[in-house]
Amino acid sequence: MSIGSISYTLNNGLTIPKIGLGIYKTPPNVAAGIVYSALVTGYRHVDSAEYYENEEDACEGISKWIALDPANNKREDIFYTTKVWDDYHGYEATKKAIEGSLKKAEKIGYIDLILLHSPSSDYEKRHGSWMAFQEFVASGKVKSIGVSNYGIKHLEELLAYPDLKIPPAINQIEVHPWLMRSELCAYCKSKGIMVEAYSPLAKARKFGDPALVALAEKHGKGQGQILIAWSLAKGYIVLPKTVTESRLLPNLDVFEIKLTEEDLALLEKPNEYFTTGWDPTTYPLDSEK
């Protein structure tokens, strides 16, 4: 068993590897190679998006890995995620977007997880998108569905849909010790929604933080490895991104790091709000506009 296949069980009974390779802003001509190298290294989880413009390349990397050793490298051992961008919210637009993503994934057959990339539209469009999501699960072409960048109010809205059949399995959000989102993460847990952490290394902008440096020295690991271990300690799926092959294994070699309660208390900054990019979790509902 690959170390990268160590997994959580989602609310639909399917499993997802605890660590995935994020490929945001990974150029198409680089994505296939880094995905292939990641799978050879031991990763079993790849996170793409329509907006990243590298879905087909990610699937090419997966296909190449399967072809390397078809007897042992199985499609069902890989967890592939993509996302529907904000421009394609709404029932018909989302159906068309998912069909496009499935076409790019032809070489691997199906999509394990598809997310609504953010809540940035309106009630009617978000609702229509979710209805389309549910239909694709029923078709078997998509195994799991979820959201990204949803705040509590957006999740409450979704869970109250009168025709909800499938609740979200995942909410993918930026989260790290300087953006803990404790209330949101607790809400997700209370509803059986897994938190998936993107930008878990805070894009290295907090490297050099005295507490982080101290914990890296204490555990004999890199600062990035400590931050990945923090996400795992909190029970989150974690998506470290790299285009550097030499960082692939270190980002996976974190499961033996056991952060103590004292370690967590030293590292965590619950009162900070340090985003490294956008924050659609604050996007207003229709009633707030």
TrEMBL record:
Q: Which InterPro entries match?
A: AKR, Aldo/ket_reductase_CS, NAD(P)_OxRdtase_dom_sf, NADP_OxRdtase_dom
Instruction: State the active site.
Output: Y52
One MF term in GO for this entry?
2-dehydropantolactone reductase (A-specific) activity
Q: Gene3D superfamilies this protein is in? A: NADP-dependent oxidoreductase domain
GO terms for biological process? ketone metabolic process
Catalytic activity, EC: 1.1.1.358
User: Which protein, by its recorded name, is this?
Assistant: 2-dehydropantolactone reductase
Q: Where is this site: Lowers pKa of active site Tyr?
A: K83
Record's keyword terms, sorted: Oxidoreductase
Origin species, per record, is [Candida] arabinofermentans NRRL YB-2248
Which residues does the annotation say bind substrate? H117
Instruction: Tell me what reaction this enzyme catalyses.
Output: (R)-pantolactone + NADP(+) = 2-dehydropantolactone + NADPH + H(+); isatin + NADPH + H(+) = 3-hydroxyindolin-2-one + NADP(+)
Span of domain NADP-dependent oxidoreductase: 25-269
